[in-house]
Amino acid sequence: MLRAVLFLIAVLIPFSGFAQRRTEQIVINQTGFYPGAPKVAAIKDFKSDSFFITTPDLADTLYKGATKGPYSAEYSPVETLLADFSDFNAPGNYVLTVPYLGYSWPFEITSEVHRPLAKASLKSYYFQRMSVPLPYEYAGKWSRPEGHPDDRVMVHSSAASDKRPEGTIISAPKGWYDAGDYNKYIVNSGITMGTMFSAWEDYPEYYGNLKVNIPESGNGLPDLLNELLWNLRWMLKMQDPYDGGVYHKLTTASFEGRLMPAEAVSQRYVVQKSTAAALNFAAVTAQASRVFRNFEDVVPGLADSCLKAAEYAWEWARANPEVYYRQNEMNKLHDPDIETGAYGDGNVDDEFIWAASELFITTGDERYFRSVNLFPDTSMPVPSWNQVRLLAYYSLLRYGDDLPQYAAGNIEIIKIRLTRFADELIENIEYQPYHAVMGKTARDFVWGSNSVAANQGIVLINAYHITGNRNYLDGALHNLDYLLGRNATGYSFVTGYGHKTPMNIHHRPSDADILPQPVPGLLAGGPNPGQQDGCDYPSSIPDESFVDHWCSYASNEIAINWNAPLVYLSGAIESLQFDSGYSD
Ligand code: 9MR
Q1: Which of 305, 328, 483, 566 lies at a 20 to 30 A Cα distance from 525?
Q2: Within 13 A of 19's CA, how many CA atoms are on the CB side?
Q3: Whose alpha carbon is nearest atom 3 of ligand 1?
C-alpha cells in the first residue's frame, strides 16, 4: 500500500531536476529522522523557493516543499533558508534536493533511528578504558594492548601527608582516559558519571536492555552500569583512606607524545587533594550507592562501600571547604611541575549543592538537605565540568515524590524555574539559521561547545518530563540534529556517524594507530572561536570555528564529559520515541 502511495506521489510531482551534484550548502542530520518527528534541513547562502525529497538516485521525487527564510545569527554573515519536511513520514532512504544547487547527504527515515548512536556513544567509553587490553572480540579493528596499569602511582609532593609521604607508591588502576590525553581527573569524572548514572535512573528499562558487547555483557548488570563501574573502581582508589580527602587527578607531569596507550609509560602521580574533587567524588559515590543497591547480588557490598566513601569525602570537604586546585601556584611550591589539564574550579558552591543533594536522596538524612542553600540565585546554569548545580536539581526532580514533605516547596521551585528556562531555550528556534537551540547566542560557542548543545538537550528533556509538552522534546531533538550535521560547519560531529565526520580527531589512540578511521562514537569538542590551540582554522566566525585536524585540541578533541550528555540525549530520545509519537 505504502509503495503504491509513494509511486502515485512520484508521478504527480514533476522531477525536481537541475540537481545532479551533491552540495555541502545543504546541511542536514546525516543519519536520519523518526517518521513522526520534526524534519528540517538548512540551505546556506542560496536562494530557492522550493525543495524536494527524492530517492538517493534522484530517480523518484516524493515530496515538494517551500523553503522559509532567510535567517541568520547576529554573529555570522551567513544566511540560510530552512526546508521543513516534517509531514513527510514514509520510512526509507532519501536525499533533499534544491533546484540549481544540488542534493544533500543521504539520510534515513525510520523508527529507532538513533539506536546505533545511543549504543556507539556508550561503547566509546569501553575504548577509553585503561589498565586492560581491548581484544578484537570487543574492540574489532581498534583492538589494542593494555595501557596504563596504574598500579605504581607516586604520591606527588603536593599530595603528601603523614601517612602517605611524598614518593609513596599507591595503586589506582582502571578508569577511562579523560579525553585525547591519557590522564584521569576526578572533577571531570564527576559530571561524566553523574550524567550517565542519571541516564540509568531516568531510563532503566531502555538501558536494562541495551547491550554494547563489552566483556561484562550478560553478567547481571546492564552494560551502562558495567561501564560506569569501570571508572567507579578507579575513583574509589583516589580517596585517601586515612582522611577521606580525594586527590584532584592522576596524571603524568606533562602530556604524553602521540603514542599508543601501551607506549606511553611516563611516571604517573596523584596530586593535591581539593574540595572540588572531594565533592564530585561524594556526589558520584552517593548516587552510585543507591543505584548499585539494587544489584547487591552481582556486586555485594558495593552500595555500602560507596556510601561510606561518599560520607567520608563529604566530611573532608566540610572541614576543608576552600582547598582550590591552582596548578600554577602549586608548581611554585612543588616538583615536578604538573602541566596537564587543571580543571581548577574557583567556586565550589554548586559542587556542595550537588553532593548534598545526592547524599540527601540516598540517605534521607535531613542534615544534608539543610547544609546548603539550594538556590544561591534564580539562574539555571547549563551543566559543565565546573558547574554542576543542575545535576542536583535533576536528581531532586527524579526523586521528588519520594522525598520528605519539607523538600516539596523546593522541588516546586525547581520545576517552575527549569520550565521557564526551557521556554527561553526553545523560544524562536524556528527562526534560527540552523533551527536549533544551540547557537542562539555566540556565548554557546565555548571550548567543548558540542557538550553545551547536548546539555541544553538534557535541560529540555527534563522540562518534557515535568510537563509532557512535546515542544521541549522537539527542541532536544533539534540540538541532536545540530550535532549530527545541521550546523554551520556541515560536520556530523560524532566519529563514524554520518557522512562528513571528524577523521583527524584529537584522540591519541585514533591518531597513533595505523587505521584511517578514528575510534567510533566520539563527539568532537565543536566550534570554539577561542581557538586557544593556535591552529589554522577556516573561519573565525563563532559557529564555524572548527577544524578537523589533530592540531586542534580546542575544537577537535574528545572528552568523557562531552560524550556523556550525548549518551543521555540519544538514549533518552530513543527511549521516549514511542510515548512522543516520533516512531509512528
Ligand atoms: O574542557 C576543558 C575546557 O573547559 C577548558 O577551557 C580547557 C582548558 O583548561 O580544558 C578542557 O579540558 C581539557 C583538560 O584540561 C585536559 N584533558 C582534555 C580536556 C578537553 O580539552
Answers
A1: 328
A2: 30
A3: 447
d(CA 417, CA 413): 6
557 assigned to active site:
yes
Catalytic residue among 465, 548, 549, 574, which? 548
Give 22-44 pLDDT, tens digit per residue: 999 999 999 999 999 999 999 99
- What is the helix (H) or strand (E) element at residue 137, kind and residue range? helix 136-139
Which residues, in sequence order, are CB contacts of 520 under 8 Å at separation 6+? 120, 123, 124, 142, 495, 496, 497
| 381 Cα: distance to centroid of ligand 1 (angstroms) | 19
Distance 184 CA to ligand 1 centre (A): 12
Is 548 among the residues known to form the active site? yes
Domains of the chain: 2-109 (2.60.40.10), 115-495+558-580 (1.50.10.10)
Catalytic residue among 256, 345, 350, 557: 557
Smallest Cα–Cα separation from 519: which of 495, 492, 484? 495
State the Rg of the chain over Cα: 24
Instruction: Encode pLDDT of 124-140 as tens digits.
Output: 999 999 999 999 999 99
Tell me whether residue 506 is one of the annotated catalytic residues.
yes
Torsion of CA 492, 498, 501, 505, to 10 degrees: 90
User: Sign of torsion, CA 203 562 78 72?
Assistant: positive
CA distances from 152 to 185, 270, 396 (A): 17, 11, 40
